[in-house]
# Entry
Amino acid sequence: MTTVTLFHRHPHNPILTAADWPYPANTVFNPGATLLPDGTTLLLCRVEDYTGRSHLCAARSANGIDNWEIDPQPTFMPDPDRYPEEIWGVEDPRITFVPELKRYVLAYTAYSQAGPGVSLALTEDFRQFERLGMVMRPDDKDAALFPRRIRGRWALLHRPQTPGGSHIWLSYSPDLIHWGEHRVVLQARRGGWWDANKIGLSPPPLETPQGWLVIYHGVRQTASGSIYRLGLALLDLESPERCLRRGESWVFGPEMPYERVGDVGNVVFPCGYTLLPDGDTLRLYYGGADSCIALATGSVGAMLSWLEEYGQI
Ligand code: BMA
# Structure
């Protein structure tokens, strides 16, 4: 077991709240993140409005910490006339830049009467979006695309809810639309584990020489509700259905008041990170208690060493 601190909270947390928004918003949380070519940090934030439904809104900052320029209007609204699966909102975007497509691919939750499903959209600039529609039918969420083809096919991590539980799966596609070769990659543990009841991918997988580094959330149900914490795993580079290592203890969990108390308390929920030019410093942007956006910084090298030392094979 470990007491190593892998993530350090920014002293100005939370870095964004609904009070910062240029238009009425109940809460802002669970942002996707990326660095734009000019070095600007872009967060695609989940905004819950006063109907209870969510849309996405872009916030840009030169230093990734403050002076956010928030789009004056929602950036990506549900489009239920053309995509009825979005009638109850769009949530929790994960952003992957795909060099082969020269575009960002957004994987987001499309929510409707049928439940949450996984939809994809492409963008060059976070102003115009091309929707590909729903690629994983309900109940499914927590998806992100790998940034390159694997053995010639696109690959997606996602979390279908099945009679067997809430586990992380991998699927492949020749064209981003049709998906198959579904495999379970990581399973929720059982009983007393911190990740006993549900797990799901948090931000997109990060390619390292040792494998794909995966930060995932684990849910423990307790007498007073769920606790959402984060764990680490490493997947094989050319066969990511193979888990090489998985940490036993969680590496980040709700501790601060803005993580403990909010619309849904005891939740830390990252959907994105940026990797700084040193290739090691990872800035994890996460939702706190479904109510605000916070930042914690870690070292990829330290996470890999921790997995090497404490990860189970
Ligand atoms: C999950 C997702 C997240 C949310 C979390 C805690 O199922 O819906 O958007 O942050 O629950 O409410």
